[in-house]
Write a structure and sequence with these properties.
By secondary structure, the protein is α+β, with helices and mostly antiparallel strands. It has helices at about 15-30, 45-55, 60, 80-90, 135-150, 170-185, 190-200, 200-205, 210-215, 230-245, 290, 305-315, 335-350, 360-370, 380-385, 410-415, and strands spanning about 35, 45, 65-70, 75, 100-110, 120-130, 160-165, 250, 265-270, 280-285, 300-305, 325-330, 355, 375-380, 390-395, 400-405. Helix 1 (about 15-30) packs across helix 12 (about 305-315) and helix 5 runs parallel beside helix 10. Bound molecules: histidyl-adenosine monophosphate.
């Protein structure tokens, strides 16, 4: 029997209930802030990711689903969506004016990662990206939207972890200091870190190997090398978050696994997560649009793992509340035809209603209705048909009453 590919899974039942609830909340919240949706293709030319996420990142270096297509194009299944959104913005010249562009997306991403709880090879992200936004105030707007979205989902134990990774201009002095620190204890670092320190020393900070983390004790901090505008930007963001009452902590070691960040980088931590990594991450990426061939445009964004969020919701709240519609059970051929016609009228009025179409007897129909969590059964037998009424059974209490067909819409809606 065929099985789903390792690291991918089917979404149904409780999990999809939470996915839908989270997606609905996201769309509602983001619309309120003036964000519009964008959907970009899953397949992109591989260069889109190499030139943005970075060749030295684990995502591109180790985890990409990439292949030659039948036309010999080297393509990749997107490991994230920021690069694709930027590619689309440039391709459609959406950044030609100075107008802000506020966008969100919801969709699957692909990374060939080692499996653990909440970590998959096909996973889902909800993300928001804003363009033409240079100020800390713009970052605060996006973070408020994110925070309110999470609070609306019922999360409370939230904290932003923020850092500034400066601009490319601050980096050479930091790199020199960091490489000197590294060389003094290079035997303690893994082979990957020896490569990383050449390509991008920031990646060393991200290494998960315990020996490397221990060897990093006392390493030079990028915040000490910030230029004055970056420092002022960072201070202002902290001031705004304080005034708005968004909980945060500074983490000078936070660098994130993607190369495109400038100045603000952040994650959201939740104490409900147990052993898992951060709930989400993002930051500013001022150089990326230009790097991918577009105008020099500042940008900021974040994305959250939907799989992880759904898992957290299940953990915190149990099963998502589910509205199971009433079940219409016709008994006999004539009643079934009438039931189809009636159901069609009621559906047109927007009433939620399932129809028993198996020709099952009443006992069997009620048993499976009970299993599915149906609260109310509408039973249409020949007797009811002749009188223009319907029997309505409350499956929780067993109580039964008779309604006229004409009063069904109003009475169903009233519940
Ligand atoms: P990222 O940190 O690579 O950032 O991913 C963001 C979130 O996606 C993670 O915090 C996590 O919740 C989820 N995630 C990542 N990998 C997996 C996985 N294998 N299984 C389940 N969930 C996963 C980005 O992708 C950036 N594009 C964020 C961003 C947007 N920066 C600026 N704009």
């Amino acid at each position: 029997m065929a099985q789903s590919v390792k690291g991918t899974r089917d979404l149904f039942g409780n999990e999809i209930d939470w996915f839908q609830r989270i997606e609905d909340t996201a769309r509602r919240t983001f619309k309120r802030h003036g964000y519009g949706e964008i959907r970009t293709p899953i397949l992109e030319e591989i260069e889109v990711f190499k030139r943005s996420v970075g060749e030295s990142s684990d995502i591109v270096h180790k985890e990409m689903y990439d292949f030659l297509d039948k036309g010999n194009r080297h393509v990749a299944m997107r490991p994230e969506n920021t690069a694709g959104v930027v590619r689309a913005m440039i391709q459609h010249k959406l950044l030609a004016s100075n107008d802000p562009q506020l966008l969100y997306y919801i969709g699957p991403m692909f990374r060939y990662e080692r499996m653990q709880a909440g970590r998959y090879r096909q996973f889902w992200q909800i993300g928001a990206e804003s363009f033409q936004v240079a100020t800390p105030e713009a970052e605060a707007e996006s973070l408020v939207m994110l925070y309110d979205f999470l609070v609306e989902l019922g999360l409370r134990q939230l904290k932003f972890s923020i850092n500034s990774v400066g601009t490319p201009a601050c980096r050479p002095a930091f790199y020199a200091a960091f490489r000197a620190f590294f060389e003094a204890r290079e035997a303690s670092f893994c082979d990957d870190c020896h490569r990383r320190v050449q390509d991008n020393p920031l990646r060393v900070l991200d290494c998960k190997v315990p020996g490397c983390q221990a060897a990093l004790e006392g390493h030079p901090l990028l915040v000490a090398f910030l230029d004055e505008p970056s420092r002022a930007h960072h201070d202002r963001l902290k001031e705004i978050l304080t005034v708005l009452g968004l909980p945060f902590e500074e983490n000078p070691r936070l660098v994130r696994g993607l190369d495109y960040y400038t100045r603000t980088a952040f994650e959201v931590l939740s104490t409900d997560l147990g052993a898992q990594s951060a709930l989400l991450g993002g930051g500013r990426y001022d150089g990326l649009v230009k790097q991918l061939g577009g105008p020099d445009v500042p940008a900021f964004g974040w994305s959250i793992g939907l799989d992880r969020l759904a898992m957290l919701m299940q953990h915190l709240h149990g099963d998502a509340p589910r509205d199971v519609p009433a079940l219409l059970i016709p008994l006999g051929e004539a009643a079934t035809l009438k039931a189809l016609a009636l159901a069609r009228e009621w559906w047109a009025l927007g009433l939620p209603l399932q129809l028993e179409t198996r020709g099952a007897n009443l006992k069997k129909a009620l048993t499976s209705a009970n299993r599915q969590g149906v609260r109310r059964a509408l039973i249409l037998g020949d007797g009811e048909l002749a009188q223009g009424v319907i029997a309505v059974k409350d499956l929780a209490t067993g109580d039964q009453e008779t309604w006229t067909l004409a009063e069904v819409p109003a009475r169903l809606q009233a519940r």
